[in-house]
């Protein structure tokens, strides 16, 4: 985690961009909060806690040089939750799917794009591993892997077009995986796990042709529902 003295404050342009994105005026959150709110991925840097017009606490951060999706921060039943704040007017075309992920690595059609919101709800998991691949081309992909028995969730960016190390990071979940909420942009991916139990973010550097989504399972199958929204610019 970054110390507060290391944090580069928001510029006026970034603040205007955020307010347009969330559709609300933002003020500095009135309470003193520390920045030890974990993002278990690679590149997330917290910048500020802000309050919107509904008096929600928002964590603002950057992934590399790019503003991350604002995160609604709350404490529920003693547990920290971080959820993405995406106003409904930023959502475009909706596509849905439902079915089994099996050992066959299937590219989902017409699920494609480089700027979208994807929600995967795990209804039944009978596999040793569930795998979801984002921003896929012939040679590129960012891979999300869930080990069912150990409850280990891994992000593998070995084929994401980066030269940075490390290429993989993982987290052990408190509860079995039931939901993934992914915010995918041209140069970043944010993964909100189990309704905000954990978050993992990463930069990517894939080509424009890397617009596919694939899913599969290892030694068994996973029944899931998918929702995908194209995202409009703020």
UniProtKB/TrEMBL annotation:
Residues 104-222 form the Glycosyl hydrolase family 32 C-terminal domain. It comes from the Bacteria. InterPro entries: ConA-like_dom_sf (IPR013320), GH32_Enzymes (IPR051214), Glyco_hydro_32_C (IPR013189). Pfam families: Glyco_hydro_32C. This is Glycosyl hydrolase family 32 C-terminal domain-containing protein.
């Amino acid at each position: 985690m970054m110390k507060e003295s290391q944090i580069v404050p928001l510029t006026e342009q970034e603040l205007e961009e955020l307010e347009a994105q969330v559709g609300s005026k933002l003020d500095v959150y009135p309470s003193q909060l520390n920045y030890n709110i974990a993002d278990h991925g690679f590149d997330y840097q917290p910048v500020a806690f802000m309050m919107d017009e509904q008096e929600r606490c928002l964590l603002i951060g950057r992934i590399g040089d790019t503003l991350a999706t604002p995160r609604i921060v709350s404490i529920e039943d003693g547990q920290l939750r971080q959820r993405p704040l995406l106003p409904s007017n930023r959502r475009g075309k909706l596509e849905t799917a439902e079915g089994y992920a099996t050992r066959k690595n299937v590219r989902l059609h017409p699920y494609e794009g480089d700027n979208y919101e994807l929600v995967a709800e795990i209804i039944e998991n009978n596999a040793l591993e569930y795998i979801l691949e984002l921003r896929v081309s012939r040679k590129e992909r960012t891979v999300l892997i869930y080990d069912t028995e150990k409850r280990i969730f891994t992000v593998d960016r070995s084929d994401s077009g980066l030269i940075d190390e490390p290429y993989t990071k993982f987290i052990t979940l408190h509860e079995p995986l039931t939901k993934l909420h992914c915010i995918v942009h041209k140069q970043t991916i944010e993964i909100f796990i189990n309704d905000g139990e954990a978050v993992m973010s990463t930069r990517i550097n894939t080509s424009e042709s890397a617009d596919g989504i694939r899913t599969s399972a290892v030694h068994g199958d996973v029944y899931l529902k998918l929702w995908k929204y194209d995202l409009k610019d703020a």
